[in-house]
Amino acid sequence: MPFVNTNGIQLAYESSGQGEPVLLIMGSGAAGRVWQMHQTPALNRAGYRTITFDNRGIAPSDAPPGRYTLDDVVADTRGLIEALDLGPCHLVGASLGAAIAQELAIAAPHLVRSAVLIAGRARSDAFRRAQTAADRALLESGVRLPSGYTAVRSALEMLSPATLDDSAAAAVWLDLFELSGPGAQAGGGQAWIDTDTDRRAALGAVTAPCRVIGFADDLVSPPHLAAEIAQAIPDCDYVEIPDCGHLGHLERPEEVNTAIIEFLDKHAAAPSAHDPERGSTERGSAA
To answer: Which residues are catalytic?
Structure first.
């Protein structure tokens, strides 16, 4: 796996496919390879080059000690784009990744061709602030809860009732969460990144085309908060997908992939190879 040096650390990344670059930015405590389950194959087939990476705190990227800030991970991602000469590129971010993409669109518009913001929010409400505080209190306590308990808690928080009520699907997810370990410990310093501050006014300065994808049963970034991003960004549209929670890109990947690719095709610099109405010229590599 190749690395780039950026913002004083090393970030591990992977690239696949040919065409205009799409940088996929993962959420808290998760590796960039999660995108490879569903999103990167679909994007590669659609004629896009995809770049995934591990945020600081996620091996094999560096995990410096201390509490990370949103500015830290935004600077990391900006440095990756610049080091790989990707800009302007399309961004697809989920959860924390959406917050990073939002900040890049505000502060570095020359690097952003378009952005798809998945399961994000521009502020927190009382319950979401309580969620954050509870997770941090557990982390500070040093208590490590049994993996079976954390698996159930993660399933309740991250998945939709439709998935939980499907016995076969629920069993697979519970096994996955139990194997991945306590979520409150994942990513180390990432747990302290502030995604509660109200950024709605700042988002009014975004000029890149944006689409927000919200999930109907999301308890972390609920639809009413996700929709506020679209309301704050000029000319931004909003797509809500039913029967999925915060991990909707894994629960309902076909619907999510369709929403991503449809949007990217509208804002691609070159005609799409798979869209006969827009020509047959294949996108050239932009990196």
So the answer is: 95, 218, 246
